[in-house]
Design brief:
By secondary structure, the protein is mainly α. Helix content is 70%, strand content 0%. The N and C termini lie far apart (60 Å).
Length: 171
């Protein structure tokens, strides 16, 4: 009985010592999304916001849903201001940031219309906003810049509320 207990203990210790992040496929590991410094956060968040602006502009231009158009215009207004701030910080703190590695997550909306356009935007923007919230929560663990922390708090509160709004607009 003592040998079995020791074997179970040894197995438990071995299993808990393993790094399971490597066992998870790369595209599903949360750590792939992790930002650990201000420069990485800005390099990711600037094009992320620019993508949301572009998609929202398509809604303002093509949607017939007044409520959704008003929502999209608010996204454009808020995130344009945030992009301007982030670009200024990136220039001041890092002499700019490389945004080349950003991978688009919004669908191409230009070929869609009507309810298909609206629902594609809503579904994609929910995921898009959730990713921004996740990144904002991550950077709060690492940043000590009041500007970044303030932006992170704003993203978390604003985009969490917008996710709720978008959820209520789903068909």
């Amino acid at each position: 009985m003592r040998i079995i207990s020791l074997l179970l203990l040894a197995s438990f210790l071995f299993v808990t010592a393993c790094d399971f992040k490597d066992a998870v496929p790369e595209d599903t590991a949360k750590d792939d999304m992790l930002v650990t410094d201000d420069e990485d956060f800005l390099a990711m968040m600037i094009p992320h916001h620019e993508e949301a602006i572009k998609s929202s502009e398509a809604i303002v231009a093509k949607s017939t849903n007044t409520e959704l158009k008003e929502f999209a215009q608010k996204v454009i207004n808020a995130q344009t201001t945030e992009v301007e701030s982030m670009k200024g910080w990136a220039t001041t703190w890092f002499q700019g940031v490389d945004t080349e590695d950003y991978e688009s997550m919004m669908p191409e909306l230009s070929m869609l219309s009507g309810d298909e356009l609206d629902q594609a935007y809503i579904e994609a923007m929910i995921d898009h906003h959730q990713e921004a919230v996740d990144f904002a929560q991550d950077i709060k663990k690492y940043s000590n810049r009041k500007e970044i922390l303030g932006l992170a708090d704003s993203i978390i509160s604003t985009q969490s509320a917008e996710i709720d709004t978008l959820e209520s607009m789903k068909n």
